[in-house]
Amino acid sequence: MSASSFNAAEPAMYAGINVGRSTSILLLKSFLSAALLFAFAVPASSQAEFECLIKADRKDEFLMVRAIAKSVVTVSGTYRLVLFKHNATGSSQSIQQGSFALKPGAENLLATTMVDAGNGVELSARLLIETDRGISQCRLPE
C-alpha cells in the first residue's frame, strides 16, 4: 500500500452530537440527579461541635438560598457556597466564599443568594466549612 493511497480514519460524529459536550452534560445531569437523593435541608453529620445547613425558601419563580453555620463551641474558619444551575439553555455556577467566627451556641448566616428557579431549572448547592476543628459539608437539592 503506498503512502498516497492511505486514508487516515477521521473521528466520526455521532449523529451530529458533540461527544465531548454530551459527556459533560451527562456528567452534570448525573451529579444533579445524585444531589436530589439528599433531604431538602441536610445538616452535616460529620462534626458534633459545629455544623452547616443550607435552607431554601421559594418566592414565585425565585429561590432564596441561605448558608448557615451553627456551633456549640468557639470556632472560626472559612466557607464556600457553590450553586449549580442547569436548564435548557445551559449551565451556570455561582460561588460565594468568606471567613466567619462563631461563639458557643451561635448561629451565623454566612451567605444569602436569590436564584431564578423557574420551570425546567435544575438547581443544587454545596456548602463547605473549614475550621481548625475540622470540615463540615452539606448539600441542597431543589
User: Per CATH, what is the topology?
Assistant: Immunoglobulin-like
Terminal Cα span? 60 Å
With helices defined by DSSP (H or I, 4 residues minimum), what is the helix count? Answer: 1
**What percent strand?**
over 45%
Largest sheet: 4 strands, antiparallel
Instruction: Assign the CATH architecture.
Output: Sandwich
Number of domains: 1
What's the count of strands? 7
Low-confidence stretches: 1-19, 30-46
Q: What is the oligomeric state here? A: single chain
Q: What's the rounded overall pLDDT mean?
A: 76
What is the succession of H and E elements? HEEEEEEE
SS-based structural class? mainly beta
What is the C-level CATH assignment? Mainly Beta
**Could you tell me the radius of gyration in angstroms?**
21 Å
In which order are the strands of the major sheet placed?
Answer: 4-3-6-7
**Helix coverage percent of residues?**
10-25%
